[in-house]
Amino acid sequence: MLRDDCIEYSLDTHHDEEHGKKLRAKIWKVTALLTIITAVEVFCGAFIKQSSDYWQLTKWFFIILTLVKAGYIVLSFMHLGDEKKSLKYMILVPYFIFILYLIFILLVEATAVDKALKLYIG
Amino acid sequence: MADHASTQIDNATLWGGKISPFSTSYGKLMMWFFLVSDALTFGGLLIAYGFTRHDAQDAWPIGEETFNSLPFLGHGYPLIYVALMTFILIVSSVTMVLAVEAGHRMDKKGVLKWMVATIIGGFFFVGSQAWEWYHFIHGSEFGKVELSDGSRAIVKGHFGEIKNFTVVTAGHHHKKGEVITDDLMHIFQHAVVAGDVENGMITLHDGTVAKINKEKDHDMKLIIKESGAIYKLQKKKQTIIEGTKAEKMYWEAINSGTANRVIYGANLQANEYGPVQYGQFFFFITGFHGFHVFSGVIINILIFLGVARGTNHKRGHYEMVEKTGLYWHFVDLVWVFVFTFFYLV
Asked: Which domains does chain B have, with CATH numbers?
């Protein structure tokens, strides 16, 4: 199994039954959490109309809940939380930078295009 | 778990070759790289969606207005169906994680059991999406209507059932006095789009003219989506016409005998829900995601067969299950974002 030129990492993730029990309990906990979050989102979506005064707040609430959900999926289900720090941040950090940048560009550009269209086309 | 990943290795060894600085296998690392790039594709799509939507502002359809149907139960259930789809995908992600966990214990039976569950969940999701596409393409019974002042409105409410068409003037295939009862809704909508409905009379393809016998609609609501001479699309506030006035205006448009005043359902050129880009983004984003789910199911089936044959067991580890698991969770992850930005916000 152990070769000179490459090291096998596949066996490192093995664990025994007792440890597995703990992991499964954690998995079910995360499941319950994700389900509850989705239910809350749908509840809010169905009852708070877009014309409501609270809509802006609700929108941010949705986005935060989505990020929480995404965090649980990536860190727990995809086990990124268990990987080495260097791997974890290599994957996550570009997103934080890139997505924030894209959202900034999106809002600035879309507003500018909207203005231009209104000005020249009406 | 991941004991090796957490062991301290001195820097000289770590970056000096013969060891992965990330303490993870080549295959897993490459899967992560693929997922990172794939996530950028979806990121680009959702950002483009946001851009277009920000431009269209209030004309953009609202999720709970567009997606409010359930199979067998009809309308009036905002977002429940999509929530159900989301739940199905989350559950199938959970069963996948359980398969991976079983793999770490070298429990072949457990892996097989949970992978079957995952595959079934995947098929359910793809099926649900097919139903939703079908519904989206066919649209509502009312469609989107162009009112007399040139404004366009989507219509909510209960559509009174069409009983039959009674032939008034004979055509090629129908005699006078004959009562047509087949495929009424379909024929009716086609005739409305073609402008063949006038004053409660429908002209069929063969030249037959028939009287439409239909029950009364109720609780009708016209929600303005494009401004006209009188009714305007307002910022932040919906312009809604209700009650008998709404019914009068709607049927005035239907009975005008003018083509294309009503749009039913959606395609890439037009849709009844909102701007044309809305339909295009719907088909592309959910389609692209659906394609990912579909290929995920296929990959899961292949890995399942491999596990069943004992390939992975002989190898001494179930890392292949872990790698497909990563892909499968990613598909779930993307859906979480699509769900929020396409349906909720």
From this structure: 3-139+277-344 (1.20.120.80), 144-265 (no CATH)
